[in-house]
Amino acid sequence: MLVLVDLDNTLVDRTGSFRRWALDWIPAHGGAAVDVAWTIEADNDGYEPRPRLAAQLAERLGLPVQHLLEELQLGVVAHLDPDPAVAAVLQEAVAAGWSPVVVTNGSVRQQEAKLRRTGLDKLVAGWVVSEGVGVRKPDRRIFDLGAEAAGLPSAAGGWMIGDNPADDIAGAAAAGLRTVWLHRGRQWPSSLAVEPTRTADDFPSALRGILGS
Ligand SMILES: [Mg+2]
Cα(169) to centroid of ligand 1, in Å? Predict the structure, then answer.
């Protein structure tokens, strides 16, 4: 049984790690509280392209762009903490015969660093990173590549768990998966034609909820 899972703000607290990084690193490099607040806002929950954010922040702080780009990629990863509840439910799923595969948009170096930092690399059956395969969520092909990573011919009939309505939920639904949306306190956007199969408060309850299905 296949369960595809998003990485940022699904398996790992990407928003929290970015905030912790910004609070540590920016004041240590000459920035003020206003720069920290600006950076957290400009990050746009990770959706602002890294090169553009690095260029703007480099100008604010008077630092080399390359330095900022490096920090935004790996410094943020160093502020990620493993979540024991996430590890426990993944182990339960594998013991019950499920194949969890990470399907994530982003750079291979950064996303693999997150998997290793949190030990998730040892707990999942595989992963697909958009940069590595040349296709991004919500493109349905990336979900089939996730299935392939688990040795399955197609993702159809499996499950997808994620927090992004368009990329994770609508994309997976188009590829024939059932879905669990992590709402993170948001309303489901009425602009989307599809709805998630289920909604959950967090990853452990999302995965535990489908283990018996
Ligand atoms: Mg996400």
Answer: 11
Helix or strand (DSSP H, E) at 145: helix 140-149
Centre of ligand 1 to C-alpha 102, Å, is 11
Encode the chain (213 residues) as per-residue pLDDT tens digits.
Answer: 999 999 999 999 999 999 999 999 999 999 999 999 999 999 999 989 999 999 999 999 999 999 999 999 889 999 999 999 999 999 999 999 999 999 999 999 999 999 999 999 999 999 999 999 999 999 999 999 999 999 999 999 999 999 999 999 999 999 999 999 999 999 999 999 999 999 999 999 999 999 977
CA of 11 to the centre of ligand 1 (A): 8
Name the nearest CA neighbour of 11 among 128, 93, 103. 103
Q: How far is the CA of 106 from the centre of ligand 1 (A)?
A: 11
14 Cα–ligand 1 center, Å? 8
Structure tokens at 122: 């040892």
User: What CA–CA distance (Å, rounded) separates 77 from 113?
Assistant: 7
Distance 23 CA to ligand 1 centre (A): 22
User: Which residue carries 């920016």 as its tokens?
Assistant: 26
